[in-house]
Structure formats: C-alpha cells, structure tokens
Amino acid sequence: MKFLTLTKWEFKNTLSSRKFLMIFVLQLSVLILMMFFFNMFITNIESEEGITLSPSLTGFASIDASDKDSLLINQLNNEVLNIESNSGDINDVKSGKSTALLAVPENSTEELDKFQTINVDLFINSADPKQVVVSEEVNMTIKAVSSSISDQWIKYLVPEVNVVEPEVKEEKKGESLPLQIIKKMMIAILLFLPLFLFGNMVIDTIVGEKERKTGEILIAMPLSHRDIIIGKNVAIILTIALQVALWLIILLAAGFDIKNPFLVYMVIILTSVPIIGVTSVIAVYSKNYKEAGIGLSFVYITIVGFLVVPALAYISSKATLSNISPMTLVMRLFSGENIPAPDFMIPFVSIIIISLISYWISIKLFKRDDITFGPRPGIIRLILDLVRIKKIAP
Predict the structure, then answer these.
(1) What gap in Å lies between CA 195 and CA 191, rounded to an integer?
(2) Under 8 Å between Cβ of 325 and 351
(3) Is residue 390 over pLDDT 60?
(4) Within 13 Å, how many C-alpha atoms sit on residue 355's CB side?
(5) β-bridge mates for residue 81, sequence order
(6) Among 70, 105, 100, 69, which Cα is nearest to 82's?
(7) How far, in Å, are 13, 26, 32, 247 from residue 29 at the CA level?
(8) What is the arrangement of strands in the sheet containing 81-85, beginning at the earlier edge strand?
(9) Partner of 165 at 20 to 30 A CA spacing, among 9, 89, 148, 237?
(10) Is the model's pLDDT at 389 over the cut of 60?
(11) What is the pLDDT of residue 393?
C-alpha cells in the first residue's frame, strides 16, 4: 500500500492548485449551461407547439388581399406571409412593394350560399424570387377552403344519417422512442462527462515528469514503478469521484429524475478506472504534451463510441449484448428498471478486463528506461516485447 503516500500527496496538490480550481469552476459552468439548454429543449419538445430546427420564415413575403367577405384572407399562413388588406391596387405588385395580389370577388359568400362557384385571381410579380412561396401558400389555402365548402354543400344536400361511431380510447404507454433517446442519453452524457475532463491531468502528472526532467527523482523514491502509476491514477480517480458526486447532487437538486443515485454513482466511478488506465498508457508512451494530446483524442473517440453506441442500441432493441457498455447499465439504473444479475455482470467484466490490461501495459512501459528517458522504440517493437517475442538476429 505504499502507493497511498503518493496518492495523498498528488490529491492534496491537485485540490490546492489554482489551475485545478479554475478548471473545476469552468466545468461546473458548462454543466449549468448544458442543464439550462437541455431543460429548455425538453420543455419545447414536450409542448403542444413542439420545436422546430428550421429557421423562421415569419414575414418572408408580402401579399395584398382584396377580400371583403374574409373568405381567404383569414386562412392564409401569417407565419410566412405578411398579409395586408387593401382595395386591390395591382400597381403595388408592379412596383415591387408587394409580391402578389389576391383578389376575391365581392359577394363571394352569397354566391357560395347559392351553390355557385367563384373565380379567385392571383397576380404575382414574376421578378420576385419569393413568388414560389406565395403561390404555394395561396394554392394550399384555396384547396383547404374549397374542401371545407364542398363538405358543407354535401351535408346540406344529402340527408343526415345517424351513424354510431365506435368508441376509441387512446392509451399512451411510456414515452416515444426519440424522446427516450434524447432524455436518457442527455442525462447519461452529463453524468459521464467528468470522466473525459480529467485526461489532461493524467497527461500532466506523467508526461509532465518527462518535460520537467523530474522522472529520475520520482523513480529514485522508495516506490516501485507500479506504486507510482497506481498512486498517481488513484489520486485522479478520487478527484473524478469528487466532481461526479457534486454533479450528481446538482442534477438531483435541479429536478432531474435519477433513481438509484448511489448505484449510478458507483458504476460511473468504476468506469473511470479503465478510462484512466488507457489514458495512462498514452501518457507513459508519449514524449511530450502535443503527442499525448493527439493520441488521447483518438483513444477518447473510441471510448465514447464504446459507451454510447451500445446504449443507443439498448434503447431501440433491448439487446443483451448492449449491456457491455457501463453507460447502458447507468441508464437502466437511473430509469428504475429491474436489472437481472447477468446484465449487471456484463459491464463489470468489461471494466475489469480493460482495467487489468491497461494498467499492466502502462506499468510495463513505465519500467522501461528507453520509454521514460529515451530513445523510445517503435510501437511494433514494443508489442513484440510485451508478448515476449524476441527479435531474431540475421
């Protein structure tokens, strides 16, 4: 347990670092902003009006309407058209002040009451590129009004027959699939986000020793290479645990429906162990911060895919294999599902396997002087050495 000495030292220095405190505050600000936009998005999507991702076309084109009986003018889409009522001056269309003029005959209502058809004129400025929108909107309105009038004529001319309508009850069970994906995935992403915000700390605590030329002093301490790697990583995992706990408390206080919060918290912290282990492999092998950052970007894309893709697959198909991702387990936990023991074990097996492999590789690499101090061998040579395949001299 010698690594605990290094863990305490690293953890204390991290919490007292101004850089960490600034990053911590910025991360909390990101969380609050994401919560705000998430709540706003969900509120809009659950409202009767819904939400649109297309740009607004309010007042896109203008149209004059001469319609004393208000047969069509009140039916036009005022969210797209800027509608003005006048006496029917076609000169406004010719001069470009208006895109079109809609002329409805006088006494049109009386004619329709006599079962007579009427002619509606639409004058359009052909030089205006918005003419297509106006034409489509007017044609759709005329079709809708014509259909309504035809129905009224049929009801008047055909005797009404009493028809017993079947009683239909609409029963909704659960939320729609798109809404489930949005709500569950957004909460899961908010919970797992801290795991990917501390990769730079792993890089700094390992690559920084190489950059600052303090690796020799660290190795000279009465600690084994394994104690150094584990001690540094445990300190980062404790930092992640602190932030995840704070984020979870904020989400619960904000009204997010998260069931089994303690189990959710434990699964997230356990998931951080292999992620930090994989990050350590990148950090140990890298020469400098730039190289580590590039490698970390590619690795994190793979890890995010491993977490998110099975979770999405589970929401849509409930496949057993989808439980390989810890994010799937977390979603099922905060949703309040009854999870059988095999589904519990699948993600833990993946966590244990990845953790053992990643920490074994990082410790093996850290023991090599050519990795720590250089010159560094190539990746293929390292792989052969790790599987104990010796190069045969010619």
Answers:
(1) 9
(2) no
(3) no
(4) 16
(5) 61
(6) 100
(7) 23, 5, 5, 11
(8) 81-85, 61-66, 100-103, 121-124
(9) 148
(10) no
(11) 39
